[in-house]
Amino acid sequence: MKFEYFKHPEKFAFFVEEPTACSVCGTVDLCFDAGGYSGVNTIDCICYECLKSGKLLELDIEANMNFDDGTEAAHTISYKTPSFPTWQDTPWPMIEGEYPVFECIASVEDFKDKAEFMDSFIETDQTKAEIEWLWDCLPKKKLHSYKDGGDISVYLFSLNAEKYWVWDAN
Ligand SMILES: [Zn+2]
């Protein structure tokens, strides 16, 4: 299972609880939970092959929101990438016209120190000073599943070996 923009789907993508028939092709598999995907149509779940091959495009269902600039990357993130595990409808970030890769829900161990954490925040609606308190809310140990996260999540992305993050809360 491999996605260009989602590093560890086995840990951080939403899956159905047990093998279920894919809503698109009917194959019984441990499908991605597509209940939260938005679009004209709705489906319960989708298998890896269907997601990867772009079946969501035909159904006009988006797994991820992003500032769709019409590029192949935007298209891949919208239709061929599992949803990143947010509480709110958080859009996929964009860094100077490029889309970063979703790495994980972050912990203290994902950063060298607080300075690096602060430096890698993507300032949009909030300034770095306003989110400094989040450092103290980070889980101390690396997460192995989205289920290990708390009610506040920091989503770590990477682009050209640089770290970036956005956050939201339950
Ligand atoms: Zn399928």
Strand and helix layout:
Blueprint (H helix, E strand, L loop, with lengths): L8 H4 L7 E2 L6 E2 L2 E2 L4 E2 L5 E2 L1 H5 L2 H5 L1 E2 L9 H8 L21 E5 L8 H6 L8 H4 L20 E8 L2 E8 L1
Antiparallel strand pairs: 1-2, 3-5, 4-6, 7-8, 8-9
Bound molecules: zinc ion.
Total count of strands: 9
How helical, in percent, are the residues? 10-25%
Succession of helices and strands: HEEEEEHHEHEHHEE
Q: Which cofactor or ligand species appear?
A: zinc ion
In quaternary terms, these chains amount to: single chain
Amino- and carboxy-terminal Cα gap = 28 Å
Secondary structural class: alpha+beta
| Rg, alpha carbons | 16 Å
Domain count: 2
Kindly report the average pLDDT value: 95
The low-confidence parts are none
Count up the helices: 6
- Spatially, the strands of the biggest sheet line up as 7-8-9
Notes on the structure:
The chain is an alpha+beta fold and 170 residues long. The chain has 2 domains: 83 residues, no CATH class; 85 residues, no CATH class. It contains 6 helices and 9 strands. The model has no long low-confidence stretch (mean pLDDT 95). Zinc ion binds next to helix 2.
